[in-house]
Amino acid sequence: WGLVLICGVGGGALGAAFSGFALHFGQKIRRWAQPQPLKRMLVLAGTCGLTIAVIGVASGGTTFGTGYEQARTAVEGNALPLLFFVEKFAASFLSMLSGIPGGIFAPSLAVGAGFGSTVGSLLGTSVALAAILGMAGYFAGVVQAPMTAFVIILEMTGDHQAVIPIMAVSMIGYVTSRILSREPLYHGLSRVFIAAAIRARRAVERESE
What we know:
This protein is mostly helical.
Protein backbone atom coordinates (compact mmCIF):
# COMPACT_ATOMS: atom_id res chain seq x y z
CA TRP A 1 0.00 0.00 0.00
CA GLY A 2 2.98 2.29 0.37
CA LEU A 3 3.65 1.61 -3.30
CA VAL A 4 0.03 2.47 -4.07
CA LEU A 5 0.34 5.81 -2.27
CA ILE A 6 3.64 6.75 -3.89
CA CYS A 7 2.53 5.81 -7.41
CA GLY A 8 -0.82 7.52 -6.92
CA VAL A 9 0.47 10.81 -5.54
CA GLY A 10 3.67 10.87 -7.60
CA GLY A 11 1.98 9.76 -10.82
CA GLY A 12 -0.90 12.18 -10.32
CA ALA A 13 1.49 15.07 -9.67
CA LEU A 14 3.51 14.23 -12.79
CA GLY A 15 0.32 13.96 -14.84
CA ALA A 16 -0.90 17.30 -13.52
CA ALA A 17 2.45 18.87 -14.39
CA PHE A 18 2.25 17.56 -17.95
CA SER A 19 -1.33 18.68 -18.60
CA GLY A 20 -0.98 21.99 -16.75
CA PHE A 21 2.27 22.95 -18.47
CA ALA A 22 0.94 21.83 -21.86
CA LEU A 23 -2.15 24.04 -21.58
CA HIS A 24 -0.28 26.99 -20.06
CA PHE A 25 2.63 27.09 -22.50
CA GLY A 26 0.39 26.13 -25.42
CA GLN A 27 -1.65 29.28 -24.85
CA LYS A 28 1.46 31.43 -24.56
CA ILE A 29 2.91 29.95 -27.77
CA ARG A 30 -0.29 30.65 -29.72
CA ARG A 31 -0.14 34.29 -28.65
CA TRP A 32 3.58 34.54 -29.41
CA ALA A 33 3.10 33.08 -32.90
CA GLN A 34 0.30 35.43 -33.94
CA PRO A 35 2.31 38.10 -35.85
CA GLN A 36 4.06 35.49 -38.04
CA PRO A 37 2.43 32.13 -37.27
CA LEU A 38 4.05 30.08 -40.05
CA LYS A 39 7.60 31.32 -39.53
CA ARG A 40 7.52 31.23 -35.75
CA MET A 41 5.88 27.81 -35.51
CA LEU A 42 8.43 26.37 -37.91
CA VAL A 43 11.24 27.75 -35.75
CA LEU A 44 9.57 26.36 -32.63
CA ALA A 45 8.99 22.95 -34.20
CA GLY A 46 12.61 22.78 -35.39
CA THR A 47 13.93 23.73 -31.96
CA CYS A 48 11.72 21.21 -30.19
CA GLY A 49 12.62 18.52 -32.71
CA LEU A 50 16.33 19.11 -32.23
CA THR A 51 15.97 18.97 -28.45
CA ILE A 52 13.94 15.75 -28.67
CA ALA A 53 16.66 14.26 -30.87
CA VAL A 54 19.33 15.19 -28.32
CA ILE A 55 17.28 13.61 -25.53
CA GLY A 56 16.81 10.50 -27.66
CA VAL A 57 20.51 10.13 -28.36
CA ALA A 58 21.39 10.76 -24.72
CA SER A 59 18.90 8.08 -23.62
CA GLY A 60 20.29 5.54 -26.05
CA GLY A 61 17.22 5.78 -28.27
CA THR A 62 14.75 4.67 -25.59
CA THR A 63 12.67 7.86 -25.80
CA PHE A 64 12.09 7.62 -29.55
CA GLY A 65 8.68 6.36 -30.65
CA THR A 66 5.62 5.70 -28.53
CA GLY A 67 7.46 3.96 -25.72
CA TYR A 68 5.32 0.83 -26.06
CA GLU A 69 8.31 -1.52 -25.95
CA GLN A 70 9.68 0.13 -22.83
CA ALA A 71 6.30 -0.03 -21.09
CA ARG A 72 5.93 -3.71 -21.95
CA THR A 73 9.44 -4.40 -20.68
CA ALA A 74 8.61 -2.81 -17.33
CA VAL A 75 5.27 -4.60 -17.03
CA GLU A 76 7.07 -7.89 -17.65
CA GLY A 77 9.24 -7.19 -14.60
CA ASN A 78 12.40 -5.83 -16.22
CA ALA A 79 13.49 -2.55 -14.68
CA LEU A 80 13.95 0.47 -16.94
CA PRO A 81 16.74 3.05 -16.50
CA LEU A 82 16.04 5.16 -13.43
CA LEU A 83 15.73 8.43 -15.40
CA PHE A 84 13.78 7.01 -18.34
CA PHE A 85 10.50 8.51 -17.15
CA VAL A 86 12.07 11.97 -16.88
CA GLU A 87 13.51 11.75 -20.40
CA LYS A 88 10.27 10.42 -21.89
CA PHE A 89 8.26 13.07 -20.05
CA ALA A 90 10.44 15.82 -21.52
CA ALA A 91 10.31 14.34 -25.02
CA SER A 92 6.52 13.98 -24.93
CA PHE A 93 6.08 17.50 -23.57
CA LEU A 94 8.31 19.05 -26.24
CA SER A 95 6.52 17.03 -28.92
CA MET A 96 3.20 18.52 -27.82
CA LEU A 97 4.61 22.07 -27.68
CA SER A 98 5.99 21.72 -31.20
CA GLY A 99 2.48 21.48 -32.58
CA ILE A 100 3.19 18.01 -33.97
CA PRO A 101 2.27 15.77 -31.02
CA GLY A 102 3.15 12.11 -31.32
CA GLY A 103 0.13 11.14 -29.27
CA ILE A 104 -0.77 11.32 -25.60
CA PHE A 105 -2.05 7.85 -24.77
CA ALA A 106 0.95 5.60 -25.50
CA PRO A 107 3.63 8.05 -24.30
CA SER A 108 1.67 8.53 -21.07
CA LEU A 109 1.72 4.80 -20.45
CA ALA A 110 5.47 4.76 -21.11
CA VAL A 111 6.13 7.63 -18.69
CA GLY A 112 3.93 6.03 -16.05
CA ALA A 113 5.59 2.64 -16.47
CA GLY A 114 9.01 4.29 -16.25
CA PHE A 115 8.03 6.16 -13.10
CA GLY A 116 6.65 3.00 -11.52
CA SER A 117 9.74 1.02 -12.53
CA THR A 118 11.97 3.59 -10.86
CA VAL A 119 9.86 3.57 -7.69
CA GLY A 120 9.85 -0.23 -7.61
CA SER A 121 13.62 -0.40 -8.13
CA LEU A 122 14.34 2.14 -5.38
CA LEU A 123 11.97 0.49 -2.91
CA GLY A 124 13.05 -3.03 -3.80
CA THR A 125 9.49 -4.14 -4.59
CA SER A 126 7.98 -5.83 -7.65
CA VAL A 127 8.94 -3.83 -10.75
CA ALA A 128 6.04 -5.32 -12.71
CA LEU A 129 3.40 -4.26 -10.17
CA ALA A 130 5.03 -0.86 -9.67
CA ALA A 131 5.04 -0.26 -13.43
CA ILE A 132 1.33 -1.09 -13.67
CA LEU A 133 0.49 1.19 -10.76
CA GLY A 134 2.70 3.93 -12.18
CA MET A 135 0.82 3.78 -15.47
CA ALA A 136 -2.52 4.02 -13.70
CA GLY A 137 -1.48 6.94 -11.52
CA TYR A 138 0.17 8.96 -14.27
CA PHE A 139 -2.52 8.35 -16.89
CA ALA A 140 -5.26 9.25 -14.40
CA GLY A 141 -3.31 12.41 -13.61
CA VAL A 142 -2.97 13.43 -17.25
CA VAL A 143 -6.56 12.86 -18.39
CA GLN A 144 -8.23 13.25 -14.96
CA ALA A 145 -10.52 10.32 -15.71
CA PRO A 146 -9.89 7.68 -13.02
CA MET A 147 -12.35 5.08 -14.26
CA THR A 148 -10.96 5.33 -17.79
CA ALA A 149 -7.44 4.86 -16.48
CA PHE A 150 -8.49 1.93 -14.30
CA VAL A 151 -10.34 0.08 -17.07
CA ILE A 152 -7.65 0.68 -19.71
CA ILE A 153 -4.76 -0.42 -17.50
CA LEU A 154 -6.67 -3.46 -16.27
CA GLU A 155 -7.61 -4.51 -19.80
CA MET A 156 -4.09 -3.96 -21.12
CA THR A 157 -2.27 -5.86 -18.39
CA GLY A 158 -4.89 -8.49 -17.53
CA ASP A 159 -3.64 -8.39 -13.93
CA HIS A 160 -6.95 -9.04 -12.17
CA GLN A 161 -5.17 -9.78 -8.89
CA ALA A 162 -4.26 -6.10 -8.66
CA VAL A 163 -7.77 -4.73 -9.27
CA ILE A 164 -8.05 -2.93 -5.91
CA PRO A 165 -4.53 -1.38 -6.03
CA ILE A 166 -5.04 -0.19 -9.63
CA MET A 167 -8.39 1.36 -8.74
CA ALA A 168 -6.94 3.00 -5.63
CA VAL A 169 -3.97 4.42 -7.54
CA SER A 170 -6.26 5.77 -10.28
CA MET A 171 -8.39 7.60 -7.72
CA ILE A 172 -5.39 8.94 -5.81
CA GLY A 173 -3.79 10.07 -9.07
CA TYR A 174 -6.99 11.80 -10.13
CA VAL A 175 -7.46 13.62 -6.81
CA THR A 176 -3.83 14.70 -6.73
CA SER A 177 -3.98 15.98 -10.30
CA ARG A 178 -7.28 17.76 -9.70
CA ILE A 179 -5.79 19.63 -6.75
CA LEU A 180 -2.75 20.76 -8.73
CA SER A 181 -4.38 21.36 -12.13
CA ARG A 182 -8.04 22.35 -12.19
CA GLU A 183 -8.66 21.85 -15.91
CA PRO A 184 -8.40 18.41 -17.54
CA LEU A 185 -6.06 18.24 -20.53
CA TYR A 186 -8.62 17.21 -23.15
CA HIS A 187 -11.07 19.87 -21.96
CA GLY A 188 -8.41 22.54 -22.32
CA LEU A 189 -7.35 21.32 -25.75
CA SER A 190 -10.96 21.20 -26.94
CA ARG A 191 -11.38 24.90 -26.18
CA VAL A 192 -8.80 25.70 -28.85
CA PHE A 193 -10.74 23.79 -31.52
CA ILE A 194 -14.07 25.24 -30.38
CA ALA A 195 -12.68 28.79 -30.52
CA ALA A 196 -11.27 28.15 -34.02
CA ALA A 197 -14.63 26.80 -35.19
CA ILE A 198 -16.46 29.85 -33.81
CA ARG A 199 -14.03 32.23 -35.52
CA ALA A 200 -14.42 30.37 -38.81
CA ARG A 201 -18.23 30.49 -38.58
CA ARG A 202 -18.19 34.22 -37.80
CA ALA A 203 -15.89 34.83 -40.76
CA VAL A 204 -18.29 32.98 -43.06
CA GLU A 205 -21.24 34.94 -41.68
CA ARG A 206 -19.46 38.25 -42.26
CA GLU A 207 -18.67 37.29 -45.85
CA SER A 208 -22.26 36.32 -46.54
CA GLU A 209 -23.66 39.63 -45.26
